[in-house]
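User: Good morning. I'm curious how GLP would be positioned relative to this chain. Could you predict the structure with it bound?
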Amino acid sequence: MNITQFNSKEELDQHAAELFAALLAHNPQATLGLATGSTPTGIYEKMIKMHQAGRLSFNEAATFNLDEYVGLPPGHDQSYAYYMNKYLFNHVDVRREHIHLLDGMADDLAAECSRYDQLLAAKPIDIQLLGLGHNGHIGFNEPDHSLQGGTHIVELKAETREANARFFESVDQVPAKAVTMGIGSILKADTILLVVKGADKAEIVKEALTGPITTECPASLLQTHAKVIVLLDREAGRLLD
Ligand code: GLP
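Assistant: Good morning! Here's the predicted structure, ligand included:
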């Protein structure tokens, strides 16, 4: 693992955006795995600025998002489809037909998961951006005694719904289920870019990066991947040596 700590979120976000720009300069048709949550918004801001400055184009790139809430339509302001449009897609030149999102409203969610896995198999991810949940989840792969490789439906843990309640009117409004790319799909990405910010994540960062590899901390499985880049702010990295 290649771990870098940054003095400011600003520098971290710029560095992350530069990694995407370098990849796309080298391979304009790259497949990007994208994430949501509060962590990546600054990175997307930097990407938009670089795009506006003519330094970054998504015109030939494909994107896959990690996950989506079950039962939220794309127009719902807390759906991840809405988030991606708001924070990135509406401001850059990515082609709509190259954007891959999970449909949390699908009548047949199992079929939706298979559809996503087929698309992923055809377009392997070059770089997968990941945030980190307080309980070690990546995407919406929650801690459990076993984990699934492919895209699947997941029952969200109470702590995850509580953590995400800040974006909703109340915790009851947070969907109980989600669809998420599986750990197997995440680990198939050529490069993984794990980004973590904030003092409240310091303990889980330490556990995930230096603790035992266990399904009870899904992010710890990243230790088995050959190319993981970890970008931390000082607060998130404060418990590391
Ligand atoms: C959410 C998302 C994850 C995200 C994580 C952390 O529930 N499904 O993809 O990485 O939780 O979110 P945040 O960046 O807001 O702390």
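The mean pLDDT is 97. Helices lie at 9-26, 41-52, 80-87, 109-122, 158-164, 183-188, 202-210.
Let me know if you'd like a different ligand tried.
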